[in-house]
């Protein structure tokens, strides 16, 4: 997102509150704000003092904590534009039990599910079911709070780990247990300015850690855009029954949505069904999607925040984009920090390639080291998905660090389908 903002011809001063990310530090002036995401105290002052016109909030934690609400009014009482929903609307992501109840109220197609506050009751329910279930921590768990068990014993174990061992902390106070859906997945995102819903090109993420969708769920190991195996009729259904419907359901509940709305959808034989909503760009979906945006990203963000999306005419590169995530040793359970990273410059010098920094820190001697689970995104544009994929892997292969893990099959399904 920072790279997209930085390329806007309309950009004035660009400040970022992430002082530790070397990728962002190269693009923006970084400002220290106290204790994120509780940094909401200092930010209003900073924004007033520097006459900030537009605030773009990337991740879910500060949105759920109400940062958009705090920054949307200037000291003199006039509005300030904020790209990102209010805390009330961000609950759609932060509380899966709430999301489930809104979907039910809005007759939105989703997996049958039940919410449990009590571990014993959840376990009894799992054991009573003949069909496979999925177990989800109801709160925010960085995309890792979902377990798709193979057996009843694994499902019971997942409930125990989430509710009793608190593997995801307070996010696991409640769990949602739902029917296991089968089909292809799609990430369908839209910009929403309070009234207008503008569909963005569909993407596909790869959530499991290892090739062939094996291993635990992660935040996402790679993505491509566009996912052209979703036909227009299905996109229209998703737009109406999944995106517009949830914006309406939120409004009926007193929450107006402004920002980017993300629907994780399973394309089942019975039609698209919602797996989850996010209230932000997906990571890594954001990388291939924004790589294809040829019009001004800041214009879209500003229009979203202002409520003037109806006049927006975004343009997209016809080419395909693929992003490969390079993860640290031990991700997602216990990612190792401090492994020295080399080769980023070489990768960035390759045609149509960009590198996004995530869990990376720069040491005083200038070297870059791993500092989080997903370390880098390597994104490439290509004439088609085959070409984009080849370029992305060629670049990902020249970046090295001890314990580097990447999936080798990102976008393979798309290549097979020649989309
Ligand atoms: P979520 O964070 O809720 O999107 O879940 C993460 C991943 O878990 C999804 O992308 C799916 O791969 C999988 N998943 C979640 N819910 C279900 C479900 N009801 N049936 C099958 N897979 C699911
Ligand atoms: N890639 C899925 C997410 O950002 O939640």
What does this structure look like?
The chain is an alpha+beta fold. It has 3 domains: 2-90, Rossmann fold; 112-179, Dna Ligase, domain 1 (2-Layer Sandwich), CATH 3.30.1490; 184-417, ATP-grasp fold, B domain (D-amino Acid Aminotransferase, Chain A, domain 1), CATH 3.30.470. Helices cover 31% and strands 24% of the residues. Strands 11-14-17-22-19 form a 5-stranded antiparallel β-sheet. Strand 9 (184-193) and strand 10 form a beta hairpin. It is globular, with a radius of gyration of 21 Å. The model has no long low-confidence stretch (mean pLDDT 94). The protein binds adenosine monophosphate and glycine. Glycine (GLY) binds at residues 143, 205, 219-220, 278, 282-283, 285. Glycine binds next to loops.
Mean pLDDT: 94
Beta strand count: 22
Beta content:
15-25%
The ligands found in this model are: adenosine monophosphate, glycine
Just name the CATH architecture of the largest domain: 2-Layer Sandwich
Query: Helical segment tally?
Result: 15
Structural class: alpha+beta
> Regarding CATH, which class of the largest domain?
Alpha Beta
**General form:** globular
Radius of gyration: 21 Å
Quick structural summary:
Helices cover 31% and strands 24% of the residues. The protein is built from 15 helices and 22 strands.
């Amino acid at each position: 997102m920072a790279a997209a903002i930085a390329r806007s011809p309309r950009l004035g001063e660009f400040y970022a509150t992430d002082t530790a990310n070397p990728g962002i530090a190269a693009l923006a002036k970084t400002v220290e704000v106290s204790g994120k995401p509780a940094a909401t105290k200092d930010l209003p002052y900073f924004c007033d003092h520097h006459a900030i016109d537009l605030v773009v909030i990337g991740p879910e934690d500060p949105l759920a904590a109400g940062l958009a609400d705090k920054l949307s009014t200037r000291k003199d009482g006039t509005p300030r534009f904020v790209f990102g929903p209010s805390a009330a609307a961000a609950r759609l992501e932060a509380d899966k039990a709430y999301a489930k109840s809104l979907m039910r109220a809005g007759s939105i197609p989703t997996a049958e599910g039940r919410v449990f506050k009590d571990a014993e009751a959840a376990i009894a329910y799992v054991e009573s079911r003949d069909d496979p279930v999925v177990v989800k921590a109801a709160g925010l768990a960085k995309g890792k709070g979902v377990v798709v068990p193979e057996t009843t014993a694994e499902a019971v174990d997942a409930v125990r780990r989430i509710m009793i061992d608190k593997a995801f902390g307070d996010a696991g106070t409640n769990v949602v247990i739902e029917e296991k859906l089968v089909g292809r997945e799609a990430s369908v995102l839209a910009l929403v300015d309070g009234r207008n819903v503008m569909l963005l090109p569909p993407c596909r993420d790869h959530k499991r850690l290892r090739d062939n969708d094996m291993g635990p769920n992660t935040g996402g190991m790679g993505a491509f855009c566009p996912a052209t195996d979703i036909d227009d009729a299905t996109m229209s259904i998703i737009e109406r029954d999944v995106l517009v419907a949830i914006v309406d359901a939120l409004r009926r509940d007193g929450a107006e949505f402004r920002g980017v709305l993300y629907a994780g959808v399973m394309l089942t034989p019975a039609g698209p069904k919602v797996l989850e909503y996010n209230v932000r760009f997906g990571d890594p979906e954001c990388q291939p999607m924004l790589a294809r945006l040829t019009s001004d990203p800041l214009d879209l963000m500003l229009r979203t925040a202002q409520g003037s999306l109806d006049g927006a005419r975004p343009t997209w590169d016809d080419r395909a984009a693929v992003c490969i995530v390079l993860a640290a040793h031990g991700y997602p359970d216990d990612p190792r920090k401090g492994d020295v990273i080399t080769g980023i410059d070489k990768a960035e010098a390759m045609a149509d390639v960009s590198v996004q920094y995530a869990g990376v820190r720069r040491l005083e001697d200038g070297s870059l080291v791993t500092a989080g689970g997903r370390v880098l995104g390597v994104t490439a544009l290509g004439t088609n998905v085959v070409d984009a994929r080849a370029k992305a892997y060629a670049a990902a292969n020249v970046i090295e660090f001890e314990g580097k893990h990447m999936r080798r099959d990102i976008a393979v399904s798309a290549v097979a389908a020649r989309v």
